[in-house]
């Protein structure tokens, strides 16, 4: 599991994710972990995808489920941005669900196979680019559309991070937003062992050339 936060600030969408990938036994006890996982995928500086939840499946060598997202991007690279953000995101989720059920023999709606995705994108609305965050939780088979904030992760993170998420910070500066969520990550990491490692931060701008990695391990 992990924690991923996305936040709209003015003409930017910020995404932050930890780097911990862990394995647990049937009782939920952590067996091992590493802090090298990449949980943010940016595509042509025009959108990003964040992933939390089931990450690897033991098929021969462990299969990294981020390969599902990369396969979706590769198969649609020439036409991806011809579609609305909703169609892109629905297509990505459908690809995940079909791959898990048809190719990997796993029920994508079972809590043991839980995965969460979020996507940030600027969508054209009557000639104006609007920043939107879409998210999905597989165990509820539930989408959230067009938000200005989103958080996904292990169940224990929500009680800790929700006060940060629910804070009215619309008038804050960019640096204040970053520092605020860094503090939230630190608090979660101190209490939830499955969240840890370096924090990756990507900033998506309405002008793709101005998008950038603020922090990347």
Annotation keywords:
alpha+beta; 14 strands; five-stranded antiparallel beta sheet; 4 helices; 217 residues
Topology readout:
Layout: E1 3-9, E2 12-17, E3 21-24, E4 30-34, E5 40-43, E6 47-53, E7 56-59, E8 61-64, H1 66-76, H2 85-103, E9 115-125, E10 128-137, E11 142-147, E12 149-153, H3 155-165, H4 174-191, E13 200-205, E14 212-215
Antiparallel strand pairs: 1-2, 1-12, 2-13, 3-4, 5-6, 6-9, 7-8, 9-10, 10-11, 13-14
Helix pairs in contact: 1-2, 3-4
Please, could you describe this protein's structure?
The chain is globular and about 45 Å long. It contains 4 helices and 14 strands. The longest helix has 19 residues, at 85-103. It has helices at 66-76, 85-103, 155-165, 174-191, and strands spanning 3-9, 12-17, 21-24, 30-34, 40-43, 47-53, 56-59, 61-64, 115-125, 128-137, 142-147, 149-153, 200-205, 212-215. It has a 5-stranded antiparallel sheet, with helices on one face. The chain has a 5-stranded antiparallel sheet with strand order 5-6-9-10-11, covered by helices on one side. A two-stranded antiparallel sheet has the order 3-4. β10 and β11 form a beta hairpin. It starts with a strand and ends with a strand. By secondary structure, it is of the alpha+beta class. The mean pLDDT is 91.
Short description, anyone?
This protein is of the alpha+beta class and 217 residues long. The protein has helices spanning 66-76, 85-103, 155-165, 174-191, and strands at 3-9, 12-17, 21-24, 30-34, 40-43, 47-53, 56-59, 61-64, 115-125, 128-137, 142-147, 149-153, 200-205, 212-215.
């Amino acid at each position: 599991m992990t924690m991923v936060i996305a936040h709209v600030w003015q003409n930017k969408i910020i995404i932050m994710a930890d780097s911990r990938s862990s394995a647990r036994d049937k009782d939920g006890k952590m067996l091992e972990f590493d802090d090298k996982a990449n949980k943010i995928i940016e595509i042509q500086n025009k959108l990003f995808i964040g992933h939390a939840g089931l990450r690897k499946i033991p098929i021969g060598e462990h299969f990294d489920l981020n390969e599902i997202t990369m396969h979706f991007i590769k198969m649609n690279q020439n036409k991806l941005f011809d579609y609305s953000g909703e169609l892109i995101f629905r297509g990505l989720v459908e690809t995940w669900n079909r791959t898990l059920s048809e190719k990997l023999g796993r029920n994508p709606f079972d809590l043991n196979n839980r995965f969460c995705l979020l996507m940030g994108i600027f969508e054209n609305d009557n000639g104006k680019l609007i920043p939107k965050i879409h998210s999905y939780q597989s165990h509820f088979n539930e989408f959230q559309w067009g938000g200005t904030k989103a958080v996904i992760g292990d169940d224990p993170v929500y009680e800790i991070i929700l006060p940060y998420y629910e804070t009215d910070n619309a008038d804050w500066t960019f640096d204040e937003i970053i520092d605020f969520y860094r503090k939230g990550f630190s608090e979660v990491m101190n209490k939830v062992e499955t969240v840890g490692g370096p924090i990756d931060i990507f900033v998506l701008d309405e002008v793709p050339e101005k998008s950038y990695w603020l922090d990347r391990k």
